[in-house]
Amino acid sequence: MTQGALTDPATGGAEARLARPQRRAAWHVARVTEVRPETASAVRLVLDVPTWPGNDAGAHLDVRLTAPDGYQATRSYSVASAGDGTQVVLAVDEVPDGEVSPFLVHDLRPGDQLELHGPLGAFFVWRPGRDTRPVQLIAGGSGVVPLYAMASLHGAASDPTAFRLLYSVRTPQDVFFADELASLSGAATHDGSTLGLDLVWTRRAPDSSPDAVGRLTRQTLAARTIPAADRPLVYVCGPTGFVEAIAGWLQEAGHDAADIRTERFGGTP
Amino acid sequence: MSFITRGFSGHRREPDPQLPPGQTLVHDWPVLSAGPTPRVDTATWELVIRDETGADHRWDWDGLLALGVEDVTVDIHCVTHWSKLGMEWRGVSVDKLFEDVESEHEFVMAHSYGGDTTNVPLEDLLDGKAWIAVEADGEPLTPEHGGPARLLVPHLYFWKSAKWVRGLVMMPDDEPGFWEQNGYHLHGDPWREERYW
């Protein structure tokens, strides 16, 4: 465990921990241009946000909904897109008995308008060209969304950094961005970099898969991720229990706590 | 600039005057942190207040508890839009830690095991407004929730309640900590929605 010293915060952490947001958060009006099923329980929302300043890969934003009587509900979502564009892509998984996600999944239509606040977050992000260290992404369920944004930007930027994604997911029908991930992992960019993609099926594997079905184990984690000796930057996103287990195993396998960035979801319905 | 969202009615929850704007009531207790959870043994735990002379005031675990642990029932508000009301905590008032600390500085950087930092004005920590918390919901504070001890500053957004707290360093000026450098507000009053800068 890293014992944090009482140093000046300006010099006490790794340089990457001090990244300032490059784009200031503000309120924006988004117009829905596309709503389509992403998984059995999630939709992909494609939004046109003319005033959007772009966002880092891994950033999130707040969505605010307003009822006719003025009642408002706000929730945070990771952004699946990255870069300078004004098109913002979200992938929203329905939280049973939730208030905002069922509306976004079932009721939102192209042409509808939404209020957004963002982009938010400057720590759980990956920026091309900043660091040549390999990157290991580890996703549990819908926690893949910000990691997909990183892999996607890495592919689009033809960044030579080694990138690998370990994705723990229930069944083939639950894979977010399945076609895009297959494409990113299949196609070598001009300099030969690709996304290394490893899927772990927790409930049911594809018929053709020789892999055993079950929860991600310490052994599988060690076998299918970049070893600690290569000093990868590791981004872990998923439910709290998943992130706690993975972060613990990574440290026991020799990864430095400062090399592991985590994001947890769940909680607010 | 708000406008009505077509088709949205929301759950018809009664307005709750205890909920700051933009917050939703939860009954579970979500976990948010930027990295792995530090595991800190109370046998080696210590808390340090460093004043402007560089002098350290130190408490080990027993020394902290000997200052007097009090029951506190407070509401907590996370910047990610959830609030938990009437939560029962136990902790040592920050006032007790500062009884013998002489400092002219008006700002504090709270440091955590694991390296995170967050800045808080001293006036937001004194006069019964903040604690070093060691129990929540009747149980010792778990590592995921910042145990063995975290700062508890319930009138500010909950990232200010530094998990795994290990030191308070006096500062002449209000400098941003780790969370604030990554986009969160310098002060963080939930009633004024001081979420981001």
What does the model show?
The complex is a heterodimer of chains A (269) and B (197). Chain A is an alpha/beta fold and 269 residues long. Chain A has two domains: 26-120, Elongation Factor Tu (Ef-tu), domain 3; 135-265, Rossmann fold, CATH 3.40.50. Helices cover 19% and strands 30% of the residues of chain A. Chain A contains six helices and eleven strands. In chain A, helix 6 (240-252) links the parallel strand 10 and strand 11. Chain A is globular and about 55 Å long. Chain A starts with 8 loop residues before the first helix and ends with a strand. Chain B is mostly beta strands. Chain B has a domain at 46-70 and 90-192: Sulfite Oxidase, Chain A, domain 2 (Alpha-Beta Complex), CATH 3.90.420. Helices cover 7% and strands 31% of the residues of chain B. Chain B has helices at 61-66, 94-97, 178-181; strands at residues 24-25, 46-50, 56-60, 70-77, 82-93, 107-112, 117-121, 131-136, 139-140, 150-152, 165-171. In chain B, the strands form two sheets. In chain B, strands 1, 4, 5, 8, 9 and 10 form a six-stranded mixed β-sheet that branches. In chain B, strands 3-2-11-6-7 form a five-stranded mixed β-sheet. The longest helix of chain B is centred in the N-terminal third of the chain and has 6 residues, at 61-66. The radius of gyration of chain B is 17 Å and the shape is globular. The two termini of chain B are 19 Å apart. The chains are: A alpha/beta (269), B mainly beta (197). Chains A and B meet through helix 1, strand 3, strand 4, strand 6 and helix 6 of A and strand 6 and strand 11 of B.
Which two chains form the greatest contact, residue counts included? Answer: A-B, 62 and 52 residues
Quote the distance from N terminus to C terminus of chain A: 33 Å
Binned strand content of chain A: 25-35%
Tell me how many strands of chain B there are. Answer: 11
Poorly predicted regions of chain B are none
Mean residue pLDDT of chain A: 89
- The structure class of chain B reads mainly beta
Listing every helix as H and every strand as E from the N terminus to the C terminus, the arrangement of chain A reads: HEEEEEHEEHEHEHEHE
Major sheet attributes of chain B: 6 strands, mixed
CATH class of the largest domain in chain A: Alpha Beta
Strand order of the largest sheet of chain A: 4-3-6-1-2-5
CATH architecture heading of the domain at 46-70 and 90-192 in chain B? Alpha-Beta Complex
